Description:
Blueprint lengths: L4 E6 L3 H12 L1 H8 L3 E8 L3 E4 L6 H5 L24 H8 L3 E4 L11 H11 L2 E4 L3 H17 L3 E2 L11 H5 L6 E7 L2 H11 L4 H10 L8 H4 L2 H14 L9 E3 L7 H9 L4 E10 L2 E10 L14 E7 L5 E5 L4 H19 L1
Parallel strand pairs: 1-2, 1-4, 4-5, 5-6, 8-10
Antiparallel strand pairs: 2-3, 7-9, 7-11, 9-10, 11-12
Amino acid sequence: MKPGLNLCFLGFGNVSRTLVRLLADRETELRDRHGITYRVTGIASRRLGWIANPSGLDPTAVRGAGFPARAKPEAKSNSLTFTTAQNVREWLAAARADVLFEATSLDVQTGQPAVDHIRAALEHGAHAITANKGPIVHAYRELRDLAAKQGKRFLFESTVMDGVPIFSLFDQLPAIHLQGFHGIVNSTTNVILSEMEQGLSFDEALKKAQALGIAETDATHDIDGWDAAVKTAALITVLMDVPIRLEEIAREGIRDLTPQALRNARRDGWPFKLVCRAKREGDRVKASVAPEKVLATSPMAKISGTSSYIYFETDIFPGLAITEENPGLYATAYGMLADFLRVSSAAK
């Protein structure tokens, strides 16, 4: 069995914490079935600052530590050690990182600082796994090529439809040419539209989604279609191999839909959904995100709650559809775990 891998977590919110629990749950299986052992050697976030110990950290101690950001370097109990690191590169070096799990917040316009985080990890000599869509949209080819040059992997299965194997699916379909796709990839708007159909106002539906933990406090990215547009751009960039800027995607959110319009549409058998579409046209791709009326008997109309759906059109398979039913945090964390298995296998 090869030496254990040093894992570092940048961004230590719900997804990363769930991933830590999932890794612990699967530790025996990872070791006995896959020959993978690991230790957590670095954890960093705005609140915690830079924490690293190449001998291993106790992530459960970090969760309850409540340490201030940029804490002074000093040893702490429960195997916590603050480093003198002042930036991500120094932190990766202090933690002797083999794998970086990047789960910081999305910046729609630039993809930063996640792009710099992943670039730093690859240049350090670590594999990079992210749940952040920004780096794919804004720097996919650069980071892909850098990873290849370094002999490392840059993976991102959790960025679209949580842990459903969309990107890795096409790795198993060599020489397939993707012509287009359509689907529902933003669950927040799906929940809001469903609640408005039941009679709630837009504001009431949004508050309910926030209370359920489905929508962020600031849900602008979801409501105005940015989240769906970024996911659409990521799919086009990677699977269709056509770089596309966000401003090239026609985008319309759900703010102008009224409860009455939604109820009438549902009654008439054509409910509204926020639909993403992409179609290859020569060497370019035409793409959009917008509310659409869909036939009540169609697969998209049956997508409710936090579920998602995507339908791919290829030159070999005219239609290939994936439905994800009401995922939770474990689904997103699983996508990162699956990527970890892929990089670990590649390292053998």
